[in-house]
Structure formats: C-alpha cells, structure tokens
Amino acid sequence: MAGYGFRTATSAKALSQALREEARPDLLLLDVELPDGDGFDILAKLRARPEFALLPIVMLTVKSELEDIRNGLRLGADGYITKPYSKNVLVEVIRRVLKQ
After folding, report:
1. Residue 72 burial (10 A CB sphere; 0-12, 13-18, 19+)
2. What is the DSSP track for 31-44?
3. Which of 20, 71, 74, 97 is the most exposed place for a label (fewest CB within 10 A)?
4. 3-class DSSP state for residue 58?
5. Quick one: angle between helices 39-48 and 66-74, nearest 10?
6. Does the pTM of the predicted model rise above 0.90?
C-alpha cells in the first residue's frame, strides 16, 4: 500500500497495549466505532498526553455527519476520512498529514 508499513489493533484495549509496548507509529488511523471504545474519546485522551500530543492522527470512519467531522477536527484529528473511501484518498491524506 503505497510503500507504507502498518500494524492493526481491532479494539481500544489492543490499541492501548500497542501504544504502550510497541514503537510509536508515524501516524495513527483511528476509527470512531470500536467494539470496546469510542474513537473520539480515545483521540481526546491521546491529545491530552504529552507523548502523543503531536502524533498525526487521521479519523477513518463511517461517521460522516458534519457534526462528527467537526468534532473529530476540534478534538485534534489531523485528517478525517469517511467510509467508504478509495485507496487513493487514503494515500493522499496520509501523505498530506505526513507532509510528504
């Protein structure tokens, strides 16, 4: 996928564990609707922690209402992609956020 490596976490708990135990990612794609958590809450908590305050975070979600998009950006998301999405849009947003 455009030369990027990636790891996955399918739940808020798995994400929390990965952020504690693995190398910090260059960028985080974060869904809003997780089986055990809310992506908006996770985003707010990450932005409140100094070690993740500047981590590029892009929301990738079915939540496409203008209020949801505004909320994600207000909470500190660097980008917001709604599902369904194309691979080209995903790569373009990742490149823009990483300033490549």
Report:
1. buried
2. -SEETTEEHHHHHH
3. 20
4. strand
5. 20
6. yes
Q: How far apart are CA 40 and CA 3, in angstroms?
A: 28
Dig out the tokens for 15 from the structure: 């994400």
Q: Which residue is associated with the tokens 């975070």?
A: 57
- Sign of torsion over alpha carbons 68, 69, 75, 80: positive
Lookup: tokens for 36: 């055990």
Give tens-digit pLDDT for 40-89.
Answer: 999 999 999 999 999 999 999 999 999 999 999 999 999 999 999 999 99
Task: Give me 65's structure tokens.
Answer: 């209402």
Contact between 75 and 40 under an 8 Å Cβ cutoff? The reply is yes
Q: How many CB atoms lie within 10 A of CB 9?
A: 17
**What distance in Å separates the CA atoms of residue 61 and residue 82, rounded to the nearest whole number?**
5
Task: Output DSSP code: residue 80.
Answer: E
Q: What is the pLDDT of residues 5-20, one digit of tens each?
A: 899 999 999 999 999 9
